[in-house]
Design brief:
alpha/beta, five-stranded parallel β-sheet, 13 strands, 36% helix, disordered N terminus
Length: 434
Amino acid sequence: MTSNTTGLENARITIIGLGYVGLPLAVEFAKKYATVGFDINEARVRELNEGHDRTLEVEDEYLKEVLVNAPLEKGLYCSHRLADIEGCNYYIVTVPTPVDKNNRPDLTPLYKASETVGKVLKKGDIVIYESTVYPGVTEEECVPVLERMSGLRFNEDFFAGYSPERINPGDKEHTVAKILKITSGSTPEAAEKVDKLYNAVITAGTHKAASIKVAEAAKVIENAQRDINIAFVNELAKIFNRLGIDTDEVLEAAGTKWNFLKFKPGLVGGHCIGVDPYYLAQKAQEAGYHPEIILAGRRLNDGMGEYVAHEVIKLMVKKDIPVKGANILVLGVTFKENCPDVRNTKVVDILHTLKEYDTNITIYDPWAESAEVKHEYGWDSVRELNGVSDCDAIIMAVSHNEFKTLDLSKLCKEKAVIYDVKGVLPKELSDARL
């Protein structure tokens, strides 16, 4: 479908937020439309305009192909200047939606992004939100900010839409254009325009939801469902560990049934599965309902890092390895394999628990930026294994490809514990796995 057949030949698009979600989307739109990528991080903008994406979601050659030297040219122009987005008529917000230290939704990035858009909003413009939220945020929280900043009236002067992101960081197969997209709009006409806009670049097609709230709800339950299923198998892993039964063998056997859902135990971090259920829980509690299964799943998954650390300590004690002062190598600190993203990584829960036993911890991760790990969590990490040896314990926390070929015997003492969180090592090489 070409832009000439969609009625979108005059579309000029701004993407607010150039992270894991925003940049790949901006690159797709830039192939057909004049697209401005806006981010308040000047260093990030400068790096992108030089043709490099440190998140590794977009390969440099593809990024350079769509970059242009001025806003409102067909292609992608990245900027941190408000003046560069004034001429656009579609504004797509892709900022993060985190939780605070008490796991309550933090809408600050959304409010700030809405203020930015409100300053340049014009009659006829459409503002589309992609950030994961609880039902009602777009129309009840963001739209009032747009109205206040612009002086315009919602659904008379400007319109809104919601199209939840489905980016999977590090996944080079399920890229943005290949994932079916949910769309919605604040009026039937706006919904149709939003749907056509995405259909022009999403080869997998779209699903037009009945309303913005339906689209918001659909997104938040996608990740809540995965969270609950992973919590179930994490609990199974704890049970079978006590019973002396191999969890992998149980899951393999059960998986022979055609409708058995194949989930594996593990750490649940990142910016989606480990966060989004709290958004739904918050809205449910505001409505007077206390969600039980959702929060139970969250509590169980949030405790898995501590559980792993204690299991390692138990194994060390059984092998008569002194715990205090022990040298422990942790392989991986990102929230998932083959990806530099350290947001909400649950590996740090392993680290914090091990630190309580006065152990000496080395974190090796060739994907993670050491400066980012230090800034976010206060931990030192290395990207090379030079000089690391005589470890009393090794924890395979993340299954980066680089780790699968490591000769662990050269890194640890003859009497050492090897714990495989991800279940990727041959069973004979590890003392236990999650």
